[in-house]
Known about the structure:
Mean pLDDT: 81
Radius of gyration: 15 Å
CATH class of the domain at 60-127: Alpha Beta
Distance between the termini: 6 Å
CATH topology of the domain at 60-127: Bacillus phage protein
Amino acid sequence: MTDLPAGRDLDALVAEKMMGWITGEHNGRKVIGPPVGNMGPIGDPGVWAYADEVPVDWILPYSTSIAAAWQVVEEIKRRGLHWWIADCSGGYGAHVRFEHDRRTFASAEAETLPLAICRAALKVVGG
Length: 127
């Protein structure tokens, strides 16, 4: 799953696995909503939507916006991991590594920094 391209599917996965969005099932379809107690972009905790019908402004564009991706880095820091980011040669635009006690915990390379952040973050949570 960590090789998904940038876009809404990856953003929803990051929201769920990394940022604490809650998922479930209703009428045989996956639903997703912000964490309970977090007003989030929709302004009402406990509001759910079918995953394939989530309004565009509900989930931040983590995989395409550096501002949104930086919130993922902040969550990584909150979890006690350190981050390292570098420009790469060899066809990739960015390399991201999350470390704990000077050991690599998860890393990823991608064409863009937001995409590399998302891919590495999903490795942290086993997504």
